[in-house]
Amino acid sequence: MGAVLAIVFGAAYAGPAARIDVLIAETKASQSTRLDALRVGLLDAGYKEGQHITVELRSADGRYKRLPLLAAELARANVDTIIAFGVKALVAEKGVTDSIPIVIPATSSDIVAMGLIQSLARPGGNITGSTSFGSEVLVERLEILKDVLPRLTRAGIHANPANASLAPALKKIAVASASLRVSFQLFPVPSPEHIDRVSDAIVKDRAEAIVVQDDSMFAASAKAIAQLANKHRIAVIGDKEFGVPAP
Fold first, then answer.
1. What is the DSSP string of 134-179?
2. Where are the domains of the chain?
3. Which strands sit side by side in the sheet containing 53-59, from one edge to the other?
4. 129, β-bridge pairs
């Protein structure tokens, strides 16, 4: 993070404070840990708020249809840099500006397959950041479940339909599921309020395990999903946020 921001703000010391706007797809509260890490990273890189930079936050509060409007407001404000928390925010911002630098601190989405950058080696355009290759991670999670549960034959996929990285990820997991002889059913979760009913649908579908897509909404709701999985005695695998003790 520090290295990326140092490139983006190379001239920050020479003039007025640079303005960084953070576009958040979820709520500010759900992203508080990431926001704290951002501020620590900036400070470690030598950028002090109020002196070298100003940081402003804009949140869609989980109402993803608001993202294009918020993104357009930032583009019109001609800010120095935009930090996108989540690929949904990144897609919205890329849709309205090709000139303002956009940083995505970490994404599990395949932003090359999504057409957001040219390649990881030479991204081109105005996007920079880091990726953890989420499509491959989703496949690996299914493989781990199969290792742990050799008799696994049916899995449910928790996915946010607003996440544009879903389509390329599903193509890869379809290939993997065929070789593993594990059928999977996609269960869209459009908002945290739908988690309970989607979990009930997975139980009715007789899925034996749940694979959770990397998405900021699920990271914020990990404890609730894990508790529901425990309640229904269904295995669940997701990001590190799912490492919660059983009730």
1. HHHHHHHHHHHHHHH-TT--EEEEEE-TT-TTHHHHHHHHHHHHHH
2. 2-131, 134-242
3. 53-59, 18-24, 81-85, 102-107, 127-131
4. 104
* CATH number listed for the domain at residues 2-131: 3.40.50.2300
Cβ(189)–Cβ(158) under 8 Å? yes
Domains 2-131 and 134-242 in one fold: yes
What CA–CA distance (Å, rounded) separates 64 from 89?
9
- For Cα atoms 104, 241, 87, give the angle at the middle one, nearest 5 degrees: 25
In this structure, what token pair is assigned to residue 57? Answer: 């936050």
Share the mean pLDDT of the chain: 84
Q: List the structure tokens of 43.
A: 């400070």
Residues facing residue 37 across a β-bridge: none
pLDDT in tens, 66-106: 999 999 999 999 899 999 998 899 999 999 999 999 998 87
